[in-house]
Amino acid sequence: LSTYENPTADVYSLVHIPLSACWGKNDPYTNRSKILCNPATDEPILIWLLGCISSMWFMRNSEPDRQCSVTIVSLSRDLSCYANRLICGFSSPPIHMLPLISILTFPFILAPTLFSSAYDAREVFCAKSDMMPYPAMELKRKDLVLVEMRLCRYFTKDDSNRYSQYRAQFELNAVSLLHSAGDTECEEN
What we know:
Helix content: under 10%
Low-confidence stretches: 185-189
Number of strands: 12
Shape: globular
Number of helices: 2
C-alpha cells in the first residue's frame, strides 16, 4: 500500500505522486485551481498515506464540527519529511518545515455532518463499496490506517491585505482502518 500507484485512476501513494503534478485549471464548469491535479487530464490526484492516528477532531460541543481533522504519524521519518516538503513546496511563498506529523482536514461546505467515509479494512483492504463502513468516532489513537487525501490550497492575505498567498494542506477523503490499537488478538500475533 505504501508504494501503490494507479495512474489510470490518478491514485498514488505519497512518494509516487508524479513530478509533473500541478494545481488544476480554473475552468468555469470544473474549477480545480485549488486541487493538485494530473496536468494531462486536469483530474484531481488522490494520495494514500499509511500511518497511525495521533489525534482526531470530529465533534464540538457534542455536535459534528464544521471541519474535522485527523493527525497521522507516518510509518517513517522519511515519509513525514516528504509530506512536509510537499506542503511547503506547494505553498506560495514556500513555508518552512512543519512538525513531522501530517494534519489532514475535511472542510464541510453545507451544514456540518459527521464524517462518514471511514471503512473497516482489518480483514481485507479492497474497494470501499466492498468494505463495511466503520464509525469515525470509534477510531482511536495508535490505530493503523490508510488515509486517502487530496493536496489542496487555500488563499491567505499578504502584508498589503490582498489574497495573493496560499498554503497547501491535505484534505481528508477517506480513512480505512487496517489494524485497531485495541485488538489484543492481533497484538499477540
